[in-house]
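Notes continue from the previous slide.

Worked example: a multi-chain complex. Inputs as given:
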Amino acid sequence: METISIIDAKKHVNEKVKIGVWLTNKRSSGKIAFLQLRDGTAFFQGVVVKSNVSAETFALAKEARQEESMYVTGEIHEDTRSHFGYEIEIESIEPVGASQDYPISPKEHGVDFLMDHRHLWLRSKKQFAIMKIRSEVIRATYEFFHQEGFVKFDAPILTGSAPEGTTELFHTEYFDKDAYLSQSGQLYEEAGAMAFGKVFSFGPTFRAEKSKTRRHLIEFWMIEPEMAFMHQEQSLEIQERYIAFLVQKVLDNCQYDLKLLGRDPKVLQRYTELPYPRISYDEAIELLQKAGDFPDVKWGEDFGSPEETYLAEHFSKPVFVLNYPKAIKPFYMKPHPTREDVVICADLLAPEGYGEIIGGSERATDPAYLEAQIEKAGLDKADYQWYLDLRRYGSVPHSGFGLGLERAVTWITGEDHIREAIPFPRLLNRIYP
Ligand code: ATP
Ligand code: MG
Ligand code: MG
Ligand code: MG
């Protein structure tokens, strides 16, 4: 008899198998017990019929406690009523680890309570499905960039300077110097692009976001590709192919997880259709002004969540908003060739209210321009000499972008809060567990 995982049940229909499981819930009468089981690969039901098993086995089934671990042995049958499609008719139970009173019962709990028990809450169905999709998005990211000829090139997490503005910065000590936790690996990725042509990084990013929103984590994971000899138009093509690829891989490989979440695959399928619309920041402002619901919107300001939601809903697809005002974007973006006031950049806004999932741009190539920008931004020039070297020795047109992993996962899974898209979220008032 084979020991298998629940996910492989379909290969063992009408065979006798053994599975290591946890009990998530149970229902029983005098004659039959239904055990809801999970093993980390899937959830399914075990059925224990009193007349078919020993008195001892039936007693174990009836008395088993939530989250108790055990080996169950029995035959796999089809079960067309469940999401999973199979169940096990249990013949014997071998207890492994006892369980105390489990704090999370199937009834509703408040978010704070669940967050305090995140280490246990992660065992639940919805959390399971989201983490599986997160894992698939990461796997597909590596597949996509490797097949496109990118080199994985990691940026440091401890840095001596901060390109994205200083208010959201985490400060720490680096022996006798100041250091900061990375807010973006981008400048280092540019060095990578000059050495390897096409690179991408994937790593944690830290921002001391002072406001509570459904889209901001304090610690999140970012994928940052950077490409040499590449203008913004080609970068946008890579971005949309990458996003469509991620969505398609989730559709192909995470059907069970989408079912557990109740996420409609037809909605996701639409996001695999390319190209995504492109509008300029100027056009976006016009659209918002015409809509009438945004009286405060004026040229020169960044969009908030309601504006981003409106723009992507307007197209019911992800939409690129191009060429934002220079004054609200970081120093390294390429100035527009014919306009003083905007830079060559784009944000990709996701539909259904998820907002910006990608921020990207073509990078400035002229060392004198960059040096002036660094000064204007109030940054210490000494910290950026290495960065200016990238322009002093064979500067080339280059572009790149950053995708927030958890933003993308929240959108693909249809969740309403980003805290669900990472195992242990760091939020404004939370660093436990
Ligand atoms: P936002 O406007 O939503 O605050 P941003 O413009 O500050 O985002 P960028 O600096 O452009 O963000 O970072 C690139 C990507 O990283 C964003 O498009 C988003 O997907 C993600 N991101 C940014 N901040 C956060 C955060 N606090 N939590 C999770 N993801 C984030
Ligand atoms: Mg921000
Ligand atoms: Mg933004
Ligand atoms: Mg941005």
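Summary box: Residues 187 and 387 are 7 Å apart (CA to CA). The pocket of adenosine-5'-triphosphate (ligand 1) is lined by residues 164, 207, 209, 215-217, 220, 222, 356-359, 402-404, 406-407, 418 (CB under 6 Å).
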